Amino acid sequence: MVSRLKWGTGLFGVLLIVGLNAMIGYDLMREHRALLATAKHETENLTLVLERHATDSFAGVAKILSGIAEVLAVRSDSQDRGDPEVLALLRRQLALSPLTRALLVVSPEGRLIHDSETDSPVDLDLSDRDYVMAHRDRPAPGVHLGIPVKGRTSGTWFISMSLRLTAPDGRFAGVVVAVVEPAAFRSFYETLALDHDAVVTLYHADGPVVARFPDHETFIGRSARHLPLFTALLKEAKAGTESLDAPGDGPRRIFSYRASSGVPLVVTVSLSRDAVLAPWRQKTETALLVGAGGSAMLALLTALLLREIGRRENMLASLQESERALRASQSRLIQDIAARHRAEAELIAAKQASDAANQAKTQFLANMSHELRTPLNAVIGFAEALESGIFGPMTGKQTEYVADIRRSGQHLLSLINDILDTTKIESGKYVLHEDLLDLSDIVAQCVRQVEPLAHEKGIALLSSLPRDLPPLFADERALRQILLNLLSNAVKFTPPGGRTEVAAAVTRAGMRLRVSDTGIGIAESDLDRVMEPFHQVDNSHTRRYPGTGLGLPLVRALVDLMGGAFTLTSRVGKGTTATILFPAERLRSIESVLTAAMSVG
Question: Residue 2 CB: number of other CB atoms within 10 A?
Fold first, then answer.
């Protein structure tokens, strides 16, 4: 009987270990598929939005060209070089299109006769340009969209969009040309909240790159006819999503494309598969450690149980042999064994409860990012899409409700990020990724991000930084979170008409960064308490402002991680000043940075 118990106990331990690892593996596989599916959905939606943006933008330019052509068709002086009335017409139409740099009229002989940028156009021979030949040599119906070229006089890239001018007798009467600025599309792509090492490219249907973010200047005009997009994908379908290697953008990318049905353009959006799966890989490492630790613990417990069973077998045999000698002490021995078993059971129960609590906390923190961030990002994204009018106009009340949804989602996402970061720091798992940073650039980005809230409250948001700040060796994400928390607090607790300012200076001790405001202030007795997590000063003013009380504790913890010092001074009714001092060893001179860059190059 005892031997069967040992066999059953060993088998049960093995099954527990296999079951634990199977559950971990299943969860990792499920999250892997979910991350890839979400990334594919995001790229497909973004290509659809960007394709409509490009199509609508060029459609607006086409309408302007059609209007000019109709007016010139009935004017007898349209061929008079530099005619003031024609010039005024071109300039009026140019003001209607922010994408267009200039409007030109070219004679049937290919000579420039009207230019919206000058009263006296230069007598240029443009007869070899594609926007002239397309209408003169092989009359193209409707509007012709050219490939990106460099201007002969300006030396800058542009895209031509042209329309044939036809004389009353049907003869070729020249062309009207819109000089479109490709950098306008690059600037629009820069405003998008892109992550996962995203690359957005706008191609001409003939292959050349029209606009791109990032590396616009490097790729514009470069032909992509040899890439799989043109050699295979577009021949099979006008839109789709693939996983492939992208030359110049890195290996294994999630690549979505969509061809425009109105103009010869193709929009692509690609995400780095490695960047998309980075959270999953981090979770995998944690899960492997948890699985290994859990398996080792279960194996140890099984071994201890087997050892205990073997020990009891030996004890039983010994008791049977010396039953008569130990009969007198049998009662005491039973009591000792029972007490021992109770102590062991209590210890095992306490250990299991502690392990279960730690595992539940770890699992909760690991899953919170996926289970809460993903739907929140979707809610915020759809709310922003509805606000932008992509899916059609809304009533004023609908717009107000959608804005409330977006702000609430962003607020909740911010709270979740603060709680996760605080937990990581307390557990020692927050990893810094430090590099040389341009403090002026990061401050400018953070100020721009907080400006809408300051403008809404009527608060002056100022930035006072010297131009010659040295590079700072720090974690960009942590530094950005520090600035955003301090600026958001300053704006939130400053009444309308107040002022918030961020300033920086280099001292012997290091770099000093200050965020000051003219807000409600904090009593001196409360300065230490506001540095405690989840604490807010309880008075008639602060109860009117929302928050979790994690902002300042998180700032202090991040500053401590980077070896800095954080101080807070305040006067009630006068304002608050938050000061961060980064040690001098984190500063780099411009000369040393340039020398290092040249040595690497």
Answer: 11
- Collect all residues with Cβ–Cβ distance below 8 Å to 457 and sequence separation of at least 6: 491, 494, 495, 496
Query: In Å, how far are 317, 319, 334 from 324, measured between CA atoms?
Result: 13, 9, 15
- CA–CA dist 402, 382 (Å, integer): 9
> What phi and psi values does residue 255 have, to the nearest 5 degrees?
-120, 115
What is 55-115 written as a DSSP string?
Answer: HHHHHHHHHHHHHHHHHHHT-TTTTSTT-HHHHHHHHHHHTT-TTEEEEEEE-TTSBEEEE
Tokens read off for 447: 């100020």
**169 torsion bin: left (phi>0), alpha (psi -120 to 50), beta (else):** alpha
Q: Which tens digit of pLDDT belongs to each residue from 34-85?
A: 988 888 998 899 999 999 999 998 889 999 999 998 888 887 777 888 888 8
Q: Please compute, for residue 14, the number of CA atoms within 13 A of its CA located in the half-sphere on the CB side.
A: 6
Task: Quickly list DSSP for 527-573.
Answer: TTGGGSTT----STTGGGS---S-HHHHHHHHHHHTT-EEEEEEETT
- Six token digits for residue 400: 């107000």
Q: Taking each helix axis from N to C terminus, what angle separates 278-321 and 330-368, rounded to the nearest 10 degrees?
A: 170
pTM: 0.48
